[in-house]
Structures are given as C-alpha cells and as structure tokens.
Amino acid sequence: MKPLLLVKSDTIETMGVARRALADAGADILLLDAADPDAARPQLDDVAGVVMFGGTMNVDEVDTYPFLKENRDLTREAVQRGVPYLGICLGAQILARALDTRVAPAAVKEVGFEPLRPTAAAASDPILSVWSDGDMVFHWHEDTMDLPEGAELLASGDRVPLQAFRVGAAAWATQFHLEIDAAELELWLDEAAEVMDLEAVWGKSPARIREEAERHMPAHEAKGAEMFKRFARIARDGSR
C-alpha cells in the first residue's frame, strides 16, 4: 500500500490519535508540514490518500499563508482523481473552497464538546457511521461553510448546522476535530492561554473545557481512531 499523506498547517499540530490509528490499520504515513516553504510536496500518484488537518488561519488568507492555495489545489486534484481525502476543520473548509463553495463566519464560535447529529445517510457511510446521535465531539472553530453542490450531508449540529459531508465516493469533511486526544488538547489550551482570555473570546474557560474533556474525551478518542482506521482501509482498497 502506498503511504497516506498527512498535511498539517500549524506547527503545534500533533495529529492526536491519527498516527497510531493509521499505523494500527497497517498504513504507512508521509507527513507534509505545509507551512514549511522548503518541504517537498508529494505527488498524488505516490500516495493512497490525503488527510488535511486544521489550522488557526482563515481558509482565504492565501496572501498571508501562500501554502493554503497549494493545499486547495492538492485537494481539488484529489477530488477530481478520486484519491481518498479526509478534511478536518480547516481541511474541511479547504475542501469546500476547492469546490468553489462559500466559507464564512458561523453564527456562533464553537469550542469544546458539542453533540453531533448524524443524518440518515451517515448510517450507511463507510466512515461516518461510527458516530451516533448525541455523541459529543470536539470543536474549535469560528467559520463554517455551505454544503458543496452535489455533496451529501452526513452530520449537523445544534448550533452550527454543517458538521460533516461527503463529496462523491471518496472525499469526506468534518467540522469537528475527530483527531484530537487529551494530550493535544492540553497543548492547544496552553497555547491559547498565552495570547487570550479564552472565556472572553470563545465563551468557555479552560477549566470548563477540561471538565468536558474528562467526561467525553475517552469515547471521542476511541471513535476518532476508528474513523481513521476505516479511512485507511478505504485508501488501501483503492490503491490495489
């Protein structure tokens, strides 16, 4: 099996449960630090699938972060060629923009754990079916997107309607951070505390987010890992 390409946009990104879960599924990993101008960008011919992680920047800040356009071009090519793709948060928004779909500020900022509402279509989806109605998933975003033309809505939320969708047979997007684990959350909270009053800016204190994580993170890590394993199997089968 060709390796899976993991694309990160922030230096603080650890990819949470992703690496271990993908390795457990038998997948080799190729890591691209997209923000590194000297990083060599692999060709899609050399990978079995792409996982595009999140970032603190806005999807359209391409003048400040030129690599965002390169990530968008890579995403568009993956969709056109049917290379399995999984976009998470910013990665989901990159998928939307690659398909000429609007990305804009959401009505509310979401941080911490919120309930997920899978649609009927998610029940038969090969990777999103791991989630059930009311499962608590982790968010940290202020933007949302429209559903791309022809895409299948797979999950909504109580406060931000669009939470997951699929384009064609092999491209998925989730607004929530299925990859995060307890260790990565601590890194994010510590970094945020250095630059802002989290409760004033995002509406939840670090203490409240940690309380939510104590209740919900174990199940979240388990289901997030399972989703990555399912994605790896799809990429493996498609690369034969």
Secondary-structure map:
Layout: E1 4-8, H1 18-24, E2 29-33, E3 49-52, H2 67-81, E4 85-88, H3 90-98, E5 103-118, E6 136-145, E7 152-157, E8 164-167, E9 171-174, H4 182-195, H5 198-202, H6 206-238
Parallel strand pairs: 1-2, 1-3, 3-4, 4-9
Antiparallel strand pairs: 5-6, 5-7, 7-8, 8-9
Helix pairs in contact: 1-6, 2-3
**Helical residues, percent:** 25-40%
Biggest β-sheet strands, sense, barrel: 9 strands, mixed
What is the radius of gyration computed over CA atoms, rounded to a whole number of angstroms? Answer: 16 Å
Number of domains: 1
CATH structural architecture:
3-Layer(aba) Sandwich
CATH level 3 topology: Rossmann fold
- Please state the structural category: alpha/beta
Distance between the termini: 7 Å
What is the CATH top level name? Alpha Beta
Strand content: 15-25%
Which runs of at least 5 residues are low in confidence (pLDDT < 50)? Answer: none
Strand order of the largest sheet: 2-1-3-4-9-8-7-5-6
Element pattern in H and E: EHEEHEHEEEEEHHH
Count of β-strands: 9
Taken from the alpha-carbon principal axes, the silhouette is: globular
